[in-house]
Amino acid sequence: MGKIFLVVFLLTLAWAVSAAEPGSLTVVVKDARTKAVVGSALVYLDGAYKGTTADMSGAITLNGLKDGTHTVRVTKPDFREVTTKIVSPDQTTVTLEIAKGALVLLNDEGEKKGAINVVFYPSSTSYSCTDHAKVSAPVYINNETRFREDVMKVIKSTYLDLDKVTSSTKPLPADYRDRFNFYYYYDTSAPADAFEGCAGTIPANYWNEVTFADITVILYPKYYGAYSDAACQPTGCSQDYGPGRNLMKAPSDQLTLIQHETGHAMYDLVDTYCGNTYYYQNDPHANVWSSRENCESDARSHGRDPAQCRQIQQAATVSSASCSQPYWRWDPMPDIMASGYRGKFGEAATQRINYVLSKAVTS
Asked: Residue 39's domain is classified under what CATH number?
């Protein structure tokens, strides 16, 4: 009896060792937006169909893999397929995220209710200020990976580094990075046009599908030449077309300009330079005021020096005429809202940013 038990035990141990041996791969499939597991996803190994994922776990185990590099492809009706490379026996588990339709969630922790929703959309055009002409820029439309990489760079260097360009006297909430949802929308048949209108245009069907966006960012790779005068299309721009339709454009290689345009699109900050732009007193927690008295009163009520209030104006230069506007500013130079190419958000602007972030209560 003891010998029989020993044989059974050894066979059981051998089976357990065999099950754990290299040569098997567990594929787990999740929804790129919700992070929930996806059942009934079709899984292919090196081009050969291997079965579907389980409904409860979103997983399937593939056996008999030879040592070396293999290609795993996952797809499902109404989802966009995803392909990846794995190396056996080094990898025994791989998780792939598939996106339903054209919208892809970029948050690692999933979608957060109450957060500010930022959606990036690729442009198929750019602009040459040297030639005063719109130019074709198909790099994002031809390469989703490049677009995603540039979007992630922008997110990490601007939205998630906001505390590096805001006033330390008005610190942002410690968890401000958790108050955003980031997505990108990718449909090669319907690209945006960054240079059709000031802030660009997006195909009409997008607004029917993505009704929850707080701002939509048309991203293009590069602006050619230096913006010199109004004869050229603007490098960046923001326009509000009503609830859920706040649109901005910017090149991915000009991070400070992205901060400037986000200042408009997300935080309702007003330009503090003197020129052809739109001025108003953006209460509450304004960064521009319609009178010196209003600016000074606001400064005193928030512990700032009222003597720093000054009118938005500019002396004549060799290349431009003098300018004067009936509005006042407080933030010192270099001010991102006065330039777009250098500086920081001043104390007044940071106070406005804090106000907007305070309304994004996530759960």
From this structure: 2.60.40.1120
Residues 55 and 201 reside in one and the same domain: no
Which residue reads 């079709």 in tokens? 42
306 with 221, same domain? no
Q: How many domains, in total, are found in the chain?
A: 3
Query: Are residues 107 and 92 part of one domain?
Result: no
| Domain-embedded: residue 132 | yes
**What distance in Å separates the CA atoms of residue 296 and residue 282, rounded to the nearest whole number?**
15
DSSP class of residue 124 equals: S
Q: Are residues 291 and 224 in the same domain?
A: no
Which pLDDT band, with edges at 50, 70 and 90, does 89 fall under? very high
pLDDT digits (tens, 9 = 90+) for 34-63: 788 999 999 999 999 999 999 999 999 999
What are residue 152's phi and psi, to 5 degrees? -65, -40
Residues with Cβ within 8 Å of 83's Cβ and at least 6 positions away in sequence, in order, are 71, 72, 73, 74
My answer on whether 229 and 279 are in the same domain is no
- Count CB atoms within 10 A of the CB of residue 272: 26
Domain that holds residue 196: 103-269+342-358
Q: Let me know: does 337 contact 321? Beta carbons within 8 Å.
A: no
Task: Kindly report the number of other CB atoms within 10 A of residue 103's CB atom.
Answer: 18
Task: Please give the Cα distance from 311 to 327 (Å, whole number).
Answer: 6
Asked whether residue 204 falls in the same domain as residue 353, the answer is yes
Residue 3: is its pLDDT beyond 80? no
- The CA distance from 322 to 79, in Å, is 56
End position of a domain, from candidates 36, 70, 98: 98
Residue 263: enclosing H or E segment and its boundaries?
helix 255-265
**pTM listed for this prediction:** 0.78
Which ranges constitute the DSSP H helices of 108-244? 139-142, 144-157, 204-209
Least confident of 73-77, 130-134, 299-303, 351-355: 73-77
Q: Distances from the Cα of 184 to the Cαs of 216, 223, 339, in angstroms?
A: 9, 21, 28
Q: What is the pLDDT of residue 22?
A: 60
- Per-residue tokens: 113: 């209710």
